[in-house]
Give the backbone structure.
Amino acid sequence: MSSSLNIAPAFEIGLEEELQRPRNELPDHVHLFRSNRKRPKHDSVLSGQLKEMGLFSILQALSENSNTGNLIVHGQTQTGSIYVDRGQLVYASLDRHRGPKALYRLVEITEGKFEFFSPGRQPPERNLAGSVDGHLLEAARNQDELAVVREELPSGATRLKFNPNMIAPVAKIPYPMLEVMAAVHKHENIDAILDGCNQPDLEVCRLLIHLLKNNVVHVVAD
């Protein structure tokens, strides 16, 4: 693969090669469970409406009581899962997303219901680590900062495309940026780009702003 590629015609070759390279190490917070044995799924021990008790309060209560089990979140259009092990967050999923991105999106859901099953079923991996309070503080920070950063981008329905004259050293581009660039190449608009990346929405928005300001991508005129 050449050290510099014209993004538009060579994108599928150069960028896809980079994205498909095996990652030698998982992130520090990701650890596979040693056993795949599934625990029996017990009856729900806690349930309710999210408008009456938000996820922040639910997770804080589970942490304070050192509970273990599955918290299932049923939003209006999405269903996600959070696994708590003795009061610690160890797993979150929502649609195709896992880890912090799933958690940050889940805590934004305010309409729907929740159910907590104890001990529930062990998730396939541990993609979260650390205290509940730490995760919730980070989720709140992401919500606040995302609201500000999102104002710097066009509407979610806006389409983006690459500048055909831009030359980029693909092999030297950091992986987080490569993922966003791949999403720009694959998806039609900003909302789909956000959904197509595994990184938290705040980080994706910041990278999109960087690409726009540096004329790597531009808005497609309707």
Residues 1-13, 23-40 have pLDDT under 50 and may be disordered.
